[in-house]
Each structure stands twice: as C-alpha cells, then as structure tokens.
Design goal:
Chain lengths: 707, 267
C-alpha cells in the first residue's frame, strides 16, 4: 500500500495484453486509442490488485469496459484472463485468481446486458421497419382504391371460378346494377348473343393460365334489358409462383361509337332517299356472289326502270318525284323475299332486284310479275294520285359462265327491249336477241365514225314516166359499205340512225350529195329536167334548222329547187303539226316538191292531203304487187289503185308506182293512169356514173330490165 | 383493394437471413437472429477466414476514413452501411473533424431504422433507405443532406460485390461519379476469388440464400470501377495492405482475406 505504481511493469503488461487481444478478434478502434484503453484498464487492474481487499468491483468494471469497447469476442476474454494470470502479479496467485474471477464476471454481466440491449434495438428496428412498410402499403392501397373507385373506366375483378368479387362504380353504372348486385353475378353469366365466337374459348384459356390477355369488343345486357357495347380488356393476375389468381377486366363504353360506325357503314352502302342498297353495295354483293367459289352457284337480276318518270319530275316537281321513288322503293322492298333477294337503287329511277342462288328462271319471272303487280297499284302522293308502270329486264344465269359486268349489261339490254316492246312489262333475257341487240348497238355506234370515214355512198334508182318510158328523175338511196358486214341497205341502219340521232348529219350529207349530183346532171342535161328525190325521216322533218339547211344546200350546189323532191312516209307526215308543217310548207313555197312514200301502208288520213303541200303519192309495193297477175281483170287491188289515181289527179297530185317488176304491171299501171314507175323492171339503183350514161343515151328507153 | 399476398421488403422478412445482420454477427454484434447466426456459422465453416475478412474490411474503413479526413474531406456518403455496429464511419469522421457530415445509405429497411434510432440525437448525420442500383434516387436524397458542389467521399465498402453484373454496377458508379464535385473520392472494397481456394466459390453459392448473393470479381474488373478517378497509393491492393497502421503488421498472406481495397480521387 502506498507503493509507487510500477509504470514500466504496467506498460509491459499492457503491451502483452494488446498483443494477445489483437490476435483474438475484431478491434474496433485505432491502435493509439486501443493502447490508451488498455493502459487505463491496466491501471485499474493494478489498483484493484493493490487494494487492501481485492477490489472485485473495479476488476469487474475492467471486464465490462472491454464489452463496452465492443471487444466482445470470447477470445478477447480468454486472452485477458490468460494475460492476467501470467503477467499481472505472479507472486500473489490467490489475488490474481480473484481478479480473474471478477474480470470474467464483470465481462459476462456486461455482455449479457449488451446482447439483450442490442437484440432489443434490433427488435425495435424491425418493428419500426414493418410499421413504415405498412404505412407505405396502406398509403399505396389507399391510392389504388381511389384509382379503382374513381376510374371512369369500368373495372371488375373476378376469381378463377368466375365469381365477381369486386367492381368499381363505373362498371356497375354501366350495367345498371349496384356494385353489390354485380358481385352476385358470375362471369359466364355475362354472355351476349353477339359475343365473338372465340371469346369464351379465350376466357377458358385465361382461367387455365394459358393466356394472359384478352381484348375485344363485347356487348353486355344491362339490368334493365338494354344493351351496351364495350371495348373490353381482361388480364390475368398471377401470384408469385405464377399460378393464376384473379382476372381483372376493364371495360370502356363504346355504344355510341359503334352506333355511329354502323350508321356510317349503312350510309356508305345504302341510298339515302329510298334506304335501299346503293350501287356500291350491289356491286359488293355481286362480287361476293361471283367469288364464292361454289361451282353450282346461280344468280338472277331484275333491272327495273320506271316508265315516264321524267314526265312526273318535270310536271309535278322533284319533291313529288322523290316521294314517288321512295314509294316505289317501299313496294320493291316488300316484293323481295328472304335474305337471298336484295333490292337496290342504281341511279335516278333505275332499280335492281338481285337474287342470290335462284332456284331457276322461274323464280326471277315470279319476282318480276310480283313486282309489276305491286307497282301497278296507284300511288297517292299528297294530293296527287297517279299510276306508274315499270319496264324490267330479267336475267338469270349460272355464275360460272358470266361476270358481274356481263350480267348487268345483259339486264340493261333486256330492259331496253322491254321498253321498246311497249313498256309496262318484263322481258326475259334471250341470248340470241341479245346478240342481235348488241349487233344493232354496235352498228349504231359505228355510224358516226363511218360517216367521217366516207363509208356511206349514194346510189340512184331511176323513175320512169310510164307514158313514154323516159327517165324523168331518180331516187337517192344511201348505202353503207361496212368494212365487216359488207354493203348495207337503208333498212338495216336508217331506223337505228333515227333512234340515235345520227340521221341528222347523215341525212344532211345524203341530201348534199344528191343535190350536188342533181345539179351536175341539170348542167349536163338541162333539157331533161331530171328531178332528185331524197328520203326524209321524222326527225329530219322536225329539225328546226331544216329549212335553213335545205336552203344552204341548194345554194351551195346551185340546184334548182323545182328539181328537188323530198319523200316522207305517211307516219312522218302524220306527225307534222305546227312548226314541222310550216317548215314543209315553206319548202314547198320555194318550189320543192313533197312526196308521200309508201302510201297506203300507214295511217291514211285523206283529210290531211288537203292541208299538206303534197305533190306526189308513191304507191306502196303491196298494191303494185297485186297487179302482177296476167289475168288482170277486176282485182280489188286494181280498183284501189284506180281510185287512188283518180283521187290524186282530182286534187292535182301525181302518182308514182314503186316496186314495178314486170312489164304487164307497168302496162296495167299506165292504163290505170299512174304517172311514174320505179322498180327493177326499169332499173336497179345505180351509181351516179351509170345514170349519167343513161342520160347521155337520150333516145334509149329505159327498159333495161335489171342492169 | 386486397391484392395477392404482400411482398415483404428485404430485411423485414426475419425468417430469412440478411447480409447486414450476418455482417454484424461477424463483427461480434448481437443485432442478429438465429437464421443469421446459422448462415454465418455455415459460411464460416466453409471459409474460416470469412470473419477475418469482414473485420479486416471494417478496420480498413477506419484507416481510410481517417485518411480522407486528413485530405480535407468533410462529407461522407457511406453506401451499403449496414447495421451500425462499433467503429462507425460517423464516429471516426466526427472524431477526426467535428464539422464532418455523414450520410448512411442502405437497402435494408431494418438496418435503416436501426441507424436512425442510433443517430437520433447525433447532428450532421442522416440515413437514406435506397438501393445502390438506383443512383439517381441515392443522389436525389443525398442532395438534401450534403452539398454536392463540395467534395464528397463516396464509400462503397463491401457493397458492390452484392450487385450482379446484370444490375450494371459500373453504370451506378459512373452516375455517382458524375454527381460529385472534383476533389471528391471514391472508396471501394470488394470480394475477390483471386488467390482463393475452391471453397470460396462454394460460399458464393451459399450466399445466394441471403437476400443478396455475392459476385467475386477480378482485380481488373474492380479496378474498372475507378475509371475517372486517380487511385491513391498504394493503389488497388488486398485489404490489409492498404496503408496499414504501423502497429498492425500485415501478415504474410494478405490475399487470405479474399478482398481488394482502393481509394481514388476525382480530378
């Protein structure tokens, strides 16, 4: 006691101690600090040792201090105890043991406290972390719930066995249920007849985990029975191990959009006025029918046109016209039966009834008859009551042997035939007639070009004075040198020309040619006074510019008007009232003579002979034909001819006999008083040069008998 | 809306071992559960040196922080700091320079909570719960506690070997480098298979049972993290060889710790 501390000894002890501990475990402080600690503790130990009674408490504090310095490896304690034993005070072993025991006990106590404290800290940290995670989760849950509840899109969650476990308000509202009601429903119960066929297969795949996503348009029945269309997107939610756990569906109301789309589609394929299929849709249907690939497929078409519709439009106005079309369309819709028959409006007043896979032509004719009957019933449009008939061209064919274009063409042509045969009827397509029609059309179409290409020529048939057998005039006859069909006579193309209107330029051209030729002959043979007879059609007679044109031609050719004869048929003359009549009278005033061609074959109203400026009657062939018999005598024809001649002469009109073929006919006609004759007996129609030759040979009677 | 079973974040699931708790055990702490201690014993059985490695790392950290403080660094960003056992960065830094600021970053929420509890009364410290693989988040949160216009020491001690290649550790380090001012430092200590016996590989496989698994990298790979930094002496060496304390002699087999350490300066 009171001894000076053995500093060197203490230092040595501390060094040993440090060395032993450093080898044993983790030293959490730097060497200097560690040194300082051990020195201090060494000092404490020395004090504890030097006290009168071993200071167990102090020694215990040393042990505790080691733990507090985080020198917690058991090896540290072992080293410490060992060093104390070997280096502290070897001379006083029993004191050393007490120190050792106290140090060990202090260490053990401290380590127990530290361990429990650290474990408690850890526990608190874990709880704290849990709590934070919970809060974050709840917050995220709250956000999710807000998202779910507030979404404008309908969201629904269901289990793998189809139970709907949760829906948001939007979904419930969409179907008109409360969310609670919807959670009573099962997913398979939400079917709708218009569900895509593979939809439920895809749902089954999703339930089995074979498919993660389905998106399609689906209709749902509302609680009140209404229907909503949705864009539905369903996804499969799996748990961590990949097993299917839920399905979540999001639905988006597209009812309006769909309706609009359908309306637009309808508009694109339907005629706005009548609601019938429009041209596009009919074309589409035809394409479908023709591309069906079925070798036995058949198709039928009624092409329908309202007779006189234009007149209704013109006289009663377009509004009434439209109402009529709508009324017709309604009746047509009633006439078509079943899904295989479609009524369409092609344009204006043209309609079509398309039949897919008809049983045969009889189905089409039955349809056409039904339609005519339905349309024949009078229409009451406002205060207007009217009847309208229709013309129908009907075609029925197997698909293989034709095409949509051919079919329409055939129907169109057949419709035309129906019209030209009198309207208010249907006509069945006839291939042969169709060919003829096609040929006629082709011919009519070729005429303008033919005129430009000078394919037409004029030949002249002599007219002979029956009294002295002298040539007194010629009739100009047009011929067409068709490149393929050869020489065509007027019968085969003049009526066509009349229909298409090409008669006007053609007629003008013929007249010009004839007058020029006549002028030439007048110049060469002035004393012969050869007249030129040119045929005129109804159209030509009605043409307002006729007088001016004739004047122009006469002026250009220099022909004396008194040498020109214009021939018109009875029916052409019959149609003349007003302007055409005035035109003809005007021409007559210039000295041009008018002849009635084919007299006796048309409507012979003798009264008109008084009004019209007629100079000649041309007796039709049939009358002349009746005078063929050598027996002659009292035939009816003779009497008629005689009477006509007398009548004509009585009012100052001359008579020409056409188609004189035999000499006896000629004789008889002369005896009956007929003035002029024309026919093969005298001459066939000749080219101009041949006529010139005839005229040159002035004395030769024209009795060539068919040169 | 109750969804499928909630996934428990790493560390909170106390039925699984956590790297932070295993590390604490090796350092002689009691901040661990039975599962952690069991795994630690298994690892130690495979690689008896493992405890030494961890302790060696801790000691290196102390030396390095001291060194950095001496270089004038007053801001420390300790990423992957784990559970605050003894000899923490803030203790060392504040001891060297009381005006230092230390921010701890760890992915383990328990470690973060624990750190917050311990640092509750300590000024100039902060704790961030973030993942080193999300450097943007780390920087964003660190910015609130540190002045990134002044040099910072970024400490990645024993953490990059928990980031597999697929998670692009180099990109993360690059991002951190880009965020700090010139004059900042990077510290890396990283486990390696260099000079290691086969049982080390086995331990790596075992480590997959914790929330994170260890990727052992070669010296070259580890050196690559220092792109853009100038390594200070002695460069990238085995941990015990990095500026050892004169009183702590380096033994003959520094490679036995199975880890490299280095400190680099950004110019």
């Amino acid at each position: 006691m009171g001894r000076q501390p053995d500093y060197a000894g203490l230092a040595r002890f501390a060094t040993h101690w440090r060395e032993r501990v450093a080898n044993g475990g983790f030293v959490p402080m730097d060497p200097a600090a560690f040194d300082a600690l051990l020195h201090r503790l060494t000092g404490r130990l020395a004090e504890a040792l030097a006290a009168a009674e071993v200071d167990g408490r102090a020694a215990g504090e040393v042990g505790a201090a080691l733990v507090d310095a985080h020198l917690t490896e058991p090896a540290v304690l072992a080293a410490t105890i060992s060093v104390i034993g070997t280096h502290l005070a070897p001379a006083r072993p029993e004191r050393v043991v007490q120190i050792q025991a106290a140090v060990a006990a202090g260490y053990a106590r401290a380590i127990r406290v530290t361990t429990m404290a650290e474990q408690e800290e850890l526990g608190k940290a874990v709880l704290s972390a849990h709590a934070a995670a919970e809060r974050a989760l709840r917050s995220s849950e709250a956000r999710l719930r807000a998202l779910f509840d507030g979404a404008a899109v309908g969201i629904g969650i269901s289990t793998m066995d189809g139970r709907i476990v949760q829906v948001n308000q939007a979904f419930a509202d969409l179907l008109g249920y409360t969310p609670e009601e919807m959670c009573q429903l099962l997913v398979p119960g939400l079917t709708h007849p218009e569900d895509p066929p593979d939809m439920w297969a895809m749902y089954a795949e999703m339930i089995h985990g074979d498919r993660d996503h389905v998106r399609l348009e689906k209709a749902y029945f509302r609680k009140d029975g209404g229907v909503v269309w949705t864009d539905m997107s369903a996804s499969l939610i799996r748990d961590e191990s990949g097993k299917p756990e839920f399905t979540i569906a999001m639905v988006h109301d597209i009812t309006d959009r769909r309706r609009l789309k359908q309306r637009l589609e309808h508009q694109a394929t339907h005629d706005p006025l009548t609601g019938l299929a429009n041209r596009n849709m009919i074309a589409g249907q035809l394409d479908r029918i023709f591309n069906s690939g079925d070798p036995a497929a058949r198709v039928g078409l009624c092409y329908l046109d309202l007779d006189g519709f234009k007149r209704v439009n013109d006289t009663l106005g377009h509004q009434v016209g439209d109402e009529l079309l709508a009324a017709v369309a309604r009746r047509l819709r009633e006439c078509v039966a079943g899904p295989r028959q479609v009524a369409g409006r092609m344009s204006g007043d043209e309609f079509v009834l398309l039949v897919e896979d008809p049983a045969g032509p009889q189905e089409l004719t039955a349809l056409a008859e039904r339609t005519l009957a339905a349309l024949a019933v009078p229409y009451q449009l406002g205060q207007h009551r009217m009847r309208v008939s229709a013309s129908i061209g009907v075609v029925e064919s197997d698909v293989r042997s034709t095409s949509p274009t051919e079919l329409m063409k055939a129907a169109d042509l057949t419709l035309y035939v129906a019209k030209s045969e009198g309207r208010g009827r249907f006509v069945m397509y006839d291939a042969e007639r169709n060919a003829r029609q096609a040929a006629r059309y082709a011919l009519a179409a070729a005429m303008p070009d033919a005129l430009d290409r000078h394919e037409f020529t004029v030949v002249y048939q002599p007219l002979v004075s029956l009294a002295d057998q002298q040539l007194c005039g010629v009739e100009a006859l047009v011929r067409w040198q068709h490149p393929r069909l050869g020489e065509l006579t007027p019968d085969s193309f003049i009526p066509l020309a009349e229909e298409t209107g090409i008669i006007l330029p053609l007629g003008r051209w013929v007249l010009e040619q004839a007058c020029a030729q006549a002028a030439e002959w007048a110049q060469l043979f002035p004393e012969r006074r050869v007249f030129m007879s040119v045929n005129m059609t109804v159209s030509q007679a009605h043409e307002p510019t006729l007088p001016a044109e004739v004047d122009g031609i006469l002026a250009r050719t220099g022909l004396d008007p008194t040498l020109l004869v214009l021939e018109l048929t009875e029916s052409a003359i019959m149609d003349t009232n007003g302007p055409p009549l005035r035109a003809l009278s005007g021409l007559a005033d210039r000295g041009i003579r008018i002849a009635i061609d084919d007299f006796g074959t048309g409507y012979s109203n003798l009264a008109y002979l008084r009004r019209l400026p007629v100079h000649t009657l041309k007796l039709a062939g049939p009358f002349v034909d009746g005078l063929r018999d050598l027996d002659g005598g009292d035939s009816v024809d003779e009497r008629i001819v005689e009477t006509i001649v007398r009548l004509a002469h009585a009012i100052g009109i001359s008579v020409t006999a056409e188609a004189v073929e035999t000499a006896p006919q000629a004789d008889r006609l002369r005896l009956l008083g007929c003035d002029t004759g024309q026919g093969w007996l005298f001459s066939r129609p000749l080219p101009a040069d041949d006529v010139t030759k005839l005229l040159q040979d002035a004395s030769t009677p024209v009795l060539s008998g068919g040169q | 809306m109750t969804g499928p079973s909630d996934r428990v974040p790493a560390g909170i699931d106390v039925s699984r071992p956590s790297a932070a708790r295993v590390y604490d055990y090796f350092l002689g702490g009691a901040h661990n559960f039975a599962v952690d201690r069991m795994l630690a014993e298994q690892i130690a059985a495979m690689t008896p040196n493992i405890g030494e490695t961890m302790r060696s790392n801790r000691v290196f950290l102390r030396r390095a922080v001291r060194f950095l403080a001496d270089q004038g660094i007053r801001q420390f960003l300790d990423i992957g700091s784990g559970i605050p056992t003894a000899g923490n960065v803030h203790e060392i830094a504040l001891d060297a320079a009381p005006d230092s600021t230390v921010v701890y970053v760890d992915i383990d929420p328990v470690a973060v909570e624990h750190s917050r509890a311990i640092l509750a009364g300590v000024d100039r410290t902060g704790v961030i719960c973030a993942d080193v693989r999300d450097p943007v988040r780390v920087i964003a949160e660190a910015e609130e506690l540190l002045d990134l216009t002044r040099p910072v020491a970024v400490l990645l001690a024993g953490v990059l070997h928990f980031v597999p290649d697929a998670d692009r550790p180099a990109a993360a380090v690059s991002a951190l480098r880009a965020a700090v001012a010139p004059g900042s430092y990077l510290l890396v200590s990283h486990a390696t298979a260099d000079g290691q016996p086969p049982e080390v590989i086995e331990a790596q496989r075992l480590s997959a049972r914790t929330a994170t698994e260890i990727s052992l990298r070669s010296r070259n790979e580890i050196a690559a993290y220092f792109d853009g930094f100038e390594l200070v002496d002695p460069g990238l060496v085995f941990i015990p060889q990095w500026r050892p304390d004169p009183q702590d002699p380096v033994d003959d087999h520094p490679e036995r710790v199975g880890a490299y350490a280095g400190v680099g300066r950004k110019d």
